[in-house]
Amino acid sequence: MRFLDVAKVYAQSGAGGNGCIAFRREKFIEYGGPYGGDGGKGGDVWAEAFDNLNTLIDFRFQQHVKARSGEGGKGKVMTGANGPDAIMKVPVGTQIYEEDGETLIADLSEPGQRVKLLRGGNGGFGNAHFKSATNQAPNFANPGQPHEEKTLILKLKLIADAGLIGMPNAGKSTFLSRVSAARPKIADYPFTTLEPQLGVVKIDESDFVLADLPGLIEGAHEGVGLGDRFLGHAERCGVILHLVDGTADKVAQNYKTIRKELIAYGNGLGDKPEIVALNKVDALTAAEIEKKKKALEKASGTKVMLLSGVAGRGVHDVLRALMRPISQARAERLERAAARRRPTHVSLSRAQRQAVNFNAPIVPSTRTLSEPEKVVKATSKLIKTGKKIAAPQPKISGANIKGTAKKPTSKLSAVRKAIAKKKQKR
């Protein structure tokens, strides 16, 4: 299947259905009244990311995406059917721009992510919608809302954990075929790779996706060679593996040329973590390896790893070095996702609830009941349940030892009288 990472699409939503003008005319019904239904809603245009797609080639042959319009209303106050939505199936990592190619509308970076691009028109009201006491026979209806249309630019940026960059014939495709099941084209002439290649790499107990990008040469940001448009696929990579051809005469100059192109491209590529590896060391002597390694370390300012994709020398060390920043980037993504899913604090106290919601009703503070109020509350519960009420025993104080009890208060006597009256009625 041919790889395509840029497409231009004309999208159009569905128009709303027109409202219906109808009147009820049946036998034995003198005043039927308005009977026209509303029109149906037009279909929306959606874009959805699918993880089983890796190219935009489908939009080379289908450049027009149109949703169906809603049906018009009918008699008997029947609403027209809504128009079905139109769904644009795009690969994960697709960015959708306006026609100018610079205004970003959506970035679909996760499988199943959906975004509504165009909204369908609402259906018009039928004449039954407008009936009232002062207008009992309306003879008009609303038309449906018109559709929306827009020209969109789709740009695919592959989702890969690491990216391979370097000069042409630096051994990038050979390295990818060595560490993964991918089978890119390998030849002894420059620009063998004309489109990005992806491979799944497994090291120890982890795995990641490695992207092989076409080679860069001096002036690529100005359109020389294949240009720098494929560098967009490296924007989502967590780390970059920079392969330098060890058989070249000027390894330091080649490294600086690639770095210059990355900085000229922008979009944060120059700031990404980079691992520099001197490739094809199997074709060099020990003295040449040491000399070119020192020159490359001086130009890059970092430690240079030795690598041979053909012989397999240093492959595992390079993969483990790639896995460290990838694991760190994955942990940061998980923390951000957990922060988005973390529930908000729920206030429990009355003061906290009123501090958050100023429209909440004011809850009166609880107060202790007096002794008569407790008796009234307890007796009312007993009356409802139908249980017998024992006569309250007077309290005997230390000063009243001869048996003379304190007289009950007026409120308690009133309560006892009320209870006696209720028993008599029963």
Set down the secondary structure blueprint.
Blueprint: E1 6-12, E2 45-50, H1 58-61, E3 64-66, E4 86-91, E5 94-97, E6 104-108, E7 114-118, E8 149-156, E9 162-166, H2 172-179, E10 197-203, E11 206-212, E12 239-245, H3 251-265, E13 274-279, H4 286-300, E14 304-306, H5 315-341, H6 350-356, H7 371-385, H8 410-425
Parallel strand pairs: 1-3, 2-4, 9-11, 9-12, 12-13, 13-14
Antiparallel strand pairs: 1-8, 2-7, 5-6, 5-8, 10-11
Keywords:
five-stranded mixed β-sheet; 14 strands; alpha/beta; 426 residues; Spo0b-associated Gtp-binding Protein, Chain: A
Can you give a write-up of this model?
- The protein has two domains: 156 residues, GTP1/OBG domain (Spo0b-associated Gtp-binding Protein, Chain: A, Distorted Sandwich), CATH 2.70.210.12; 179 residues, Rossmann fold (3-Layer(aba) Sandwich).
- The protein is flat and about 120 Å long.
- It contains eight helices and 14 strands.
- Strand 12, helix 3 and strand 13 form a beta-alpha-beta unit.
- The protein has a six-stranded mixed beta sheet, sandwiched between helices. A five-stranded mixed beta sheet has the order 3-1-8-5-6, with no helix packed on it.
- With 426 residues, the protein is α/β, with parallel strands linked by helices.
